[in-house]
Every structure is written in C-alpha cells, then in structure tokens.
Design brief:
154 residues, 10 strands
C-alpha cells in the first residue's frame, strides 16, 4: 500500500490497509495469518516478517512480504484498490539491526550510521532506506527487532 503523510502515521495507515487484506478483504475472502511461522491450512497464507516501509517524497510504501510458496497468480485478489500485489526482485542490501521502539530519531541515527558504514567500505548504495519491523506493537521494546536497509547498487 502507498500512503501519504508523516512516517508513523503512514506505517499505521499502510499496516491497517494491508491487515484488512490479510484478514479477508480479498477474493475469495481468504484469511492470511499475521505471525510467523504459522501452520498453513487451505485458504490461509502465512505472512512472513518483516513489514517494510520506504519513503518516496511525501509517500510511503508499506509492504508485507508473502511466503515464497505463493505466486502473484495464487494470492487472493485485494478488494481495496489501495492494496496491490507486486513482485519484489531479489536485491542485496546493507543492513543494521536494532531493538526498541523505532522512533524517527533512532531511524535517522541508524540510517546515517549505515550510510557511513557503506561509504567507508566503498559499497555504493541507491534509493531511500527501507525500514523493516518484525514484531507486533505489544512486544516489549528490548525484544523488538528493527532494521534499516540500504539497497546496494549493482
């Protein structure tokens, strides 16, 4: 889903849109499990972590990564036009992992740290950072896993 606004508002809105999709706002109203790993049953799709967010101007792209066992042809069709299914090609990233609640300040600090790391090692990067969140909001902050990812240029 692509949503506009401040980062935290955008992740909440994008998450809500995609969550509606996996909870049945799709054809044929298939339920898609939120936790990973989960057992798969007929008409159930296990969502893999992470949930990602990436900025383009004032727009944020929020993504759930679907399991490899599904294809664009076999995933249920979203009923909300703001939700789309798109393939994401294999890509290499430089990544920094951190725990806690991912505040804007933490994300900016980690993004700058990762940019310095890549520059020091002459790893060319491209695009805006991708933010990855692995845990539900009720997870205690010190158990949370977050990542800032920079795509490596080919």
């Amino acid at each position: 889903a692509v949503v506009e606004g401040e980062r935290k508002t955008a992740i909440n809105e994008g998450f809500r849109l995609i969550a509606a999709y996996i909870f049945g706002a799709n054809e044929p109203k298939a339920k898609i499990a939120m936790t990973a790993p989960v057992q798969q049953q007929k008409q159930t799709i296990a969502m893999t972590a992470p949930v990602t967010q990436q900025r383009t101007g004032d727009l944020w792209t929020v993504r759930f990564i679907m399991p490899k066992s599904w294809t664009l042809e076999t995933l249920p069709k979203p009923t909300d036009t703001r939700v789309s299914l798109k393939p994401v090609p294999a890509t290499r990233f430089a990544v920094i992992t951190f725990s806690g609640v991912a505040s804007t300040e933490d994300i900016e600090k980690r993004s700058e740290e990762l940019r310095r790391y890549a520059a020091e090692r002459k790893l060319p990067t491209t695009g805006q950072p991708v933010l990855a969140f692995y845990n539900p909001p009720w997870t205690l902050p010190f158990f949370r896993r977050n990542e800032v990812m920079l795509q490596l240029a080919s």
